[in-house]
Write a structure and sequence with these properties.
The protein contains seven helices and nine strands. With about 230 residues, it is of the alpha/beta class. It has one domain. It has a five-stranded parallel sheet, sandwiched between helices. A two-stranded antiparallel ribbon has the order 3-4. A hairpin with a 2-residue loop joins strand 5 and strand 6.
Length: about 230
């Protein structure tokens, strides 16, 4: 059984979707430490002169992601952050071929109130899973209460769900302690993701945008798993 593990990113990119699709069980690493420089509270969308960040205003503390609170009193261009983010998505993708198909669901997500970062992130992840027709089982790392760290925690999580294959992102080659997996008879494989090119709303192609860019421009068949 193949197990993927990843932090709950905001509007994640296609590589995240690809890992979801290739996993039998996907563990949302929600008790990992929040990192303000990562993609847990922000991601990028395509705009006319390249791309821009959509960033959720949060309390940037060195605590687990599932404890990070959203600063809902912060205004962006005079709007609350949900309105501002939806406006940016609407304004830049309203002419995209698949926008009308998904507009109401995206708008529904952004019309809700969220106190915790992990809640909006999971709403968007579940939306992407449904849109890309992915039925991988989701489990949260916080359910197990492990106090282990780094590779040891990954091994504990894969073992806890009876996995025998751990699907790592390519960067795992730089830090994973393979012998800890071998001791538990867990095979480590590395994700091989080649970002597909497709027609975006503006000239040129910018890879590694949020997966909504591919979904709204090219539809659910372009999910990077081919």
């Amino acid at each position: 059984m193949i197990v993927g593990i990843h932090q709950p990113n905001y509007l994640p990119y296609l590589g995240f979707v690809d890992k979801l699709k290739k996993s039998d069980v996907f563990i949302i690493y929600d008790d990992a430490q929040f990192s303000k420089g990562d993609f847990q509270h922000r991601n990028r969308i395509r705009i006319y002169h390249g791309w821009e960040w959509l960033t959720v205003p949060v309390e940037k503390k060195h605590i687990p992601i599932n404890q990070i609170k959203i600063k809902n009193n912060v205004k962006i261009s005079g709007m609350n952050w949900q309105e501002a983010h939806f406006k940016e998505i609407h304004d830049n993708y309203r002419k995209a071929p698949y926008y009308q198909k998904y507009e109401k669901e995206i708008q529904r997500i952004y019309e809700q109130q969220y106190d915790m970062l992990s809640d909006i992130n999971m709403e968007l992840i579940e939306f992407l899973m449904k849109s890309f027709d992915i039925d991988t089982k989701i489990i949260y790392s916080s359910e197990f209460g492990f106090n282990s760290k780094s590779t040891e925690k990954l091994v504990d999580l894969v073992s806890a769900v009876d996995g025998d294959v751990y699907l790592s992102g390519p960067m795992g080659k730089n830090y994973l302690e393979h012998q800890l997996f071998e001791e538990k008879n867990i095979q480590v494989t590395y994700q091989e993701f080649k970002h597909p090119a497709y027609q975006q709303q503006y000239n040129g192609f910018e890879p590694n945008m949020s997966a909504v860019d591919a979904l709204l421009n090219a539809g659910p068949e372009v999910d990077g798993h081919e």
